[in-house]
Amino acid sequence: MPLTEPSDLELKTIRALTDFAHKRVVEIGAGDGRLTWPFVAEAARWVALDPDPDEVDEAAKAVRLPPFPDALLLVGDGRSLSLPSDYFDIAFFSWSLC
Amino acid sequence: MASAVAEAHRVLRRGGLLLDIHPTDELTSLEVWHARYQAEGSFVEAAENLEAIHRVPVGYLDHDVEMLQDFTAATDALAQALEDERRFLLERSTVFDYRYFFDSLDELTDYLEENLEYARASDDLLERAVVVMRRAGTTPKIVIVQRTAATALRRL
User: Fold this and answer.
1) pTM of the full predicted structure?
2) Spatial distance between the Cα atoms of B24 and B54, rounded to a whole number of angstroms
3) Cβ of B74 and A97 within 8 Å?
4) Is the preceding omega at residue A66 within 30 degrees of 0, hence cis?
5) Per-residue pLDDT for chain B (156 aa), expressed as one digit of tens each?
6) I want to staple B27 with a disulfide (CB 3.0 to 4.6 A). Which of A89, B1, B60, B149 is the partner?
7) What is the C-alpha separation between A26 and B103, in angstroms, rounded?
8) A91 vs B46: CB contact, 8 Å cut-off?
């Protein structure tokens, strides 16, 4: 179902699984950036992809508050990534593998 | 899904992490929550100690069968990458409840009407929710609880 704001429990669960600090992250199916903005400031690089251009536009609006120069928002399909091999530290499927 | 996992493997460096969050195929439940004692503001939604919350299960939403199958398929895609293809090692896996809070039945029904393709609530279920809400000793919240899996796989 369409998700609301990330809950504290959701964020705590993600943090218990990994640490985003100084990492290069590709987020696949990022949607409106719901799970991007809580973590993007910690990462060395964040590439957020979604196949829906409208969702990418929604996420881009949030980029300005505050700006994240190391974040890229792209329209893309997780089944065929136009990204280099052996590059990222974390590949994050945020409610998108299903 | 298998191709998405394969692509993730390709772009990850050796030792990198695949992190996945997706709902399980368990039915989504509808509950009514209220604080055991009078509380301020968003206490129920933000409660750290669930012992302070009275949770009453009401029933289950009706899901589209294909959607539940998609959730299962996502889990299967990860299992396949682990077992059959040995591309990843299981680092850690856990489950948690993703909760949607509503202040009223109208708010809940509006949300479900806008998202009918995901889940529906029967009239019987909604009537039971009304009965439970009336019995609450403090201001109740209607809660949709969706069991969610979070998994970290280490890229080999």
Assistant:
1) 0.86
2) 25
3) yes
4) yes
5) 788 999 999 999 999 999 999 988 888 999 999 887 776 666 777 666 677 788 999 999 988 777 777 888 888 888 888 886 678 999 999 999 988 899 999 999 888 887 766 788 999 999 999 999 999 888 899 999 999 999 999 999
6) B60
7) 36
8) no
